[in-house]
Amino acid sequence: MSDREEVFHHAPTAVLTVGDLRRQIDGVPDHMPLKVAVPDDPGGDAVEDRWVVVRAQREESDWYDGLRVAYHDDYFVLSCDYPEGDYYRPVPDDGGMS
User: Fold this and answer.
1) d(Cα 54, Cα 46) in Å, to the nearest integer?
2) What are phi and psi of 88, to 5 degrees?
């Protein structure tokens, strides 16, 4: 692992608007839990309050106990990303080639 870092520019592919969110939640029951997936790094996949929302969608999960569905989870997810800006990332070690 290298101690060197480089600056890179990150820009989300899209930023969700309130209008987009309203269209996405049309017909979603009021009692449905809301979850937010916040990335660990720009463009990545975890929870703070400085992220921009880029997608909203209803999801379902089935939990199995062997051969049958033991639990069905139905929820609405907001996916987030880092806002546009410049970020640092580690430079991979070249294995002593330089």
Assistant:
1) 14
2) -95, 145
C-alpha 21/C-alpha 53 separation (Å) is 9
Of 44, 42, 53, which is closest to residue 15 (Cα–Cα)?
Answer: 53
Domain boundaries, the chain: 20-89
Q: Is the dihedral of CA 55, 59, 64, 68 positive or negative?
A: negative
pTM, two decimals, is: 0.47
54's torsion region: left (phi>0), alpha (psi -120 to 50) or beta?
Answer: alpha
pLDDT tens track for 29-50: 888 777 676 766 676 665 555 5
Contact 83, 50 (CB under 8 A): yes
Number of H helices and number of E strands within the chain?
1, 5
Is the CA virtual torsion 25, 27, 33, 37 positive or negative?
Answer: negative
CA gap 3, 36 in Å, rounded = 32
